[in-house]
């Protein structure tokens, strides 16, 4: 009996002869197709020794096969067979034992001799060709939702079962995950898969994968795009082939296409053209006929559904990733004395941004806002809520609200959002002042920040507790100020870093504290960031993780100058002299005139709107910009207005806004600060740590 098992797609390219062999290893039975396999009539084979059917070099291997008949073992080998005309052919020979009484003339086993079909006989059986294209292979590559992988699976099926060379071309908009529009004729295409089975490297060299092209007028490729119907060229003669090459301006095309048979199968799904499959049979193989085109179109219609599914998945995934990635910052800013690093690790590889977020925002006056938050939940819904909160908090930071006040506004926002759908989030907000070395921290239901000091000690800072944002009741959000030693490392994080299903949160906090132990000051920030996530990748049930690490240093004293001035008109003249001398010390004489004018306007404005007994403080900071700050005891913030032509005053802030790079004001515990910045020649005023790749992209790998 024949070997058990499902027939494979390879049946379309091979022919099998069955021989019965007795115990003496002579052929006693023969299949009727001996002539097509070995070039001999069945009568010529019966009675011959099986060893006569193979070349001398293969007799030892045949003997091993035949020994298996006596021991009851099935064996297979590749052997070189003799044909009647003296030529040879390669074959896969399988010896299968039979159970019998050993009588003479009774087969002791069967030899299955399988040889490849000659080129002229391939693609002869439409039923085998249809089965090879439509059954298991289509389901196998159709299960992929990756466009490139689906295309490679498609050409691997269609070659060799339908043609000798095939390529898949799709609209460029499919690859770019854009919406597909009605496109014909001059559509921009991309070739995403090419294969051939004739060992000719010219096909892949002339028709390279990844090429973006527009086919010229007058070619069959343009015709299939314009008509959205198959194009059948039973024989491409030399003149036609070289005409295509001339129009395409690609010489090797003429040589490759000469005397081939070609079918171009459009890929159409939901009445929309997606691309086409170019199929060719090189000379020596049976040419395409109308029935082949029918079979090819049936395959192409199913393949188009696979390509369309992959396109839709790619588009939706690209849309989701673009939305998610836009929700996290693409850069982190901080004063020059503060070094910041971040890590973001999504909890799922499918949804690559969740509800965790982080921020590092440089503020005027050599200050920086450091923020980490966590919206309850996972997936896109949590990410969208996170995006709203992050945008709102970024705005509040730029308005220079104190941390506790900013979180209170965020809490009210979460209460409002919760009316539509319940939400809550935790957040820690810290502002570090590089001029005083102090950090003010407020927390809403978040884990405590970690501070690692230069002496090797570390502690979790105790911040007044408050409920999460969006949870009514509980304590009021308050802030606490800490004095930080130069070089200390400040770490804020989300709970996914220290808590999982198999680890108690106290153990996680202890592990994190151990990472920032002795030697933290000397270690590079990038090493600290990597060590923070060490060991979390193996946990497949982890939560999202966001970590922000900042090495805090004060602004050098020589880059900061401050003076207390009396509430006296003469103080303006004195301030101009102080500013001039300080800028000379800093080598910024070219900024002297403008800076003196800005300081004069700010001091005059302060004197006009504060009590006469209140002193005024003037401060200059040389950071990445030159900052002028004027502090007074009035809580009323100035407002820019445009004075009328006959007004005697009201133009001071207008002058400041025109001359300064930017300006603003903020309230303090004692009053307010009005500040302005000027760019320093040769210094970028807005440097930042650019996030070259989207957060989390490279953090799935250990």
Characterization of the model:
The protein starts with 13 loop residues before the first strand and ends in a 12-residue tail after the last strand. Helix 13 runs antiparallel to helix 14, helix 17 packs antiparallel against helix 18 and helix 18 runs antiparallel to helix 19. The strands form six sheets. It has a six-stranded antiparallel sheet, with helices on both faces. With 702 residues, it is an alpha+beta fold. The protein contains 19 helices and 28 strands. A hairpin with a 3-residue loop joins strand 14 and strand 15. This is PAS domain-containing protein. It comes from Actinomadura keratinilytica. Keywords: Hydrolase.
Task: Please provide a brief summary of the model.
The chain is of the alpha+beta class and 702 residues long.
Furnish the topology, listing elements before pairings.
Layout: E1 14-21, E2 27-30, H1 34-38, H2 42-45, H3 59-71, E3 75-82, E4 88-97, E5 109-116, H4 126-134, H5 136-142, H6 147-161, E6 165-171, H7 172-175, E7 189-196, H8 202-206, E8 212-213, H9 220-227, E9 231-236, H10 238-248, H11 252-257, E10 260-269, E11 272-281, H12 290-326, E12 331-332, E13 339-345, E14 356-363, E15 367-375, H13 379-398, H14 403-420, E16 425-433, E17 438-444, E18 450-452, E19 458-460, E20 479-483, E21 488-493, H15 505-515, H16 525-532, E22 545-552, E23 560-565, H17 570-586, H18 592-609, E24 616-622, E25 625-632, H19 652-659, E26 662-667, E27 672-679, E28 689-690
Antiparallel strand pairs: 1-2, 1-5, 3-4, 4-5, 6-7, 6-11, 7-8, 9-10, 10-11, 12-28, 13-22, 14-15, 15-16, 16-17, 17-20, 18-19, 18-21, 21-22, 23-24, 24-25, 25-27, 26-27
Helix pairs in contact: 4-12, 5-6, 6-12, 13-14, 17-18, 18-19
Protein name: PAS domain-containing protein
Region (Disordered): 681-702
Keywords: Hydrolase
